Please model this.
Amino acid sequence: MKVFGSSGVRGLANDTLTPEYVLRIAAAASSEWDDDWGAAVARDTRTTGRMLADAAAAGLASTGLDVHRLGVVPTPAAQAYAERAGIPALVITASHNPPEYNGVKLIGADGIELGRPAIKRVEDRLAKETVKRAPWATVGATQRIEDVRQQYVSEVRAATDRSAVEAAELTVAVDPGHGAGSATSPQLFRELGCEVVTVNAQEDGHFPGRNPEPVGGNLRDLRQLVRAADADLGVAHDGDADRAVFADERGEGIEGDAALAALAAGVLDHGETVVSAVNVSQRLVDVADDVGATVELTPIGSTNIITRVRELQAAGEEVPIAGEGNGGILFPAHRLARDGLYTATKFLELVATNPASEVVAPFDAYENVRLDLAYRDDRERDRMLGAAERHAREADAELTTMDGYRLDYGDGWVLVRASGTEPLVRVYAEARSGDRATQLANEVRTAIEAAQADA
Ligand code: MG
Model:
């Protein structure tokens, strides 16, 4: 029974993701963990977060683990705590999903998301209902941990080139989207000597200002704030603040792929490896080619990327950066975790010497298009993917089938795959001109729609 997707368990709160279910997941996970350890529980700002965190805490305590309640903290802050304390953690978050969703993410005692083999053992316990139960005298105790945010901010600050950022006297506009980064990100930028202005920076599970996904129209407030405050950089996070996306000093959104390429150009050296997903932008490939580094691709999703980085590190490879164009970026030498605040400070270091628009200008030569094609049931999805496969096999392009069908045409590429979390077939395309990217995406769409019409 596969319960965990490429980014944990997700569902509609109180519908598919009930407190009872979260309790069972927590008890199954903690049955795998050493009951001398204890385990941490953290959450993002969703209205259902405390309810589900309470359920998780009960599940952990029932197996005999002491529970460390971290409250509302960014997912990377929970990971930092897990590593410091040497205990696993369970994070209640649905990341960028809409407010009615929630989810569960499992972190190991090393601060890293559990890999697929460990997840599989938890799933097996869930399926077979083989959870441990502690006798009455040894159920877990609960303690509230108060300084997780401060410790996290201090840790990221210590890893930042503070003098360069301070000397630049930057103004930063921050839009945490009412999520778990609402307190920590503005605080760190202030501690780095920046003038900070914020929007949507009140923790609020109703997400009144914008939805948690930091994309497109959701970033209108941030772009306006950058212009109004004459800021040097705009920073936005998703609901659990493990992603960072940016707006430049003119208030224009920076493509996530361009930001990733700029950050990679800053850290990637000859002979090293960068890990990204199969929808990787040519911008990142160009950076790797320029310095003589290798690009390793995985199926889409942070779990896949983290698994691959671990394999490469075990084989002695240097992987200074990994991630996707959605702002989910890892710097494995710091921690093998996506970290919105750490990513933002690394970008801020670049902006300390050049305006944000110039930082990404070398990586702006491509245009991206994404189409979302809805389906009603699995049969329709399979017909659509079948049509996409026929299109792919007949195309005069290099085909990659790691996750969906990616076609590289030399002057652009297109990828078609089923979404892991929504009833959508997604088409991604990239080329040097918007017209060419649109053409590549539309060729796939036409093939898919013809198959839908035939049914
Ligand atoms: Mg997230």
About this structure: The mean pLDDT is 95. Residues 23 and 59 are 5 Å apart (CA to CA).
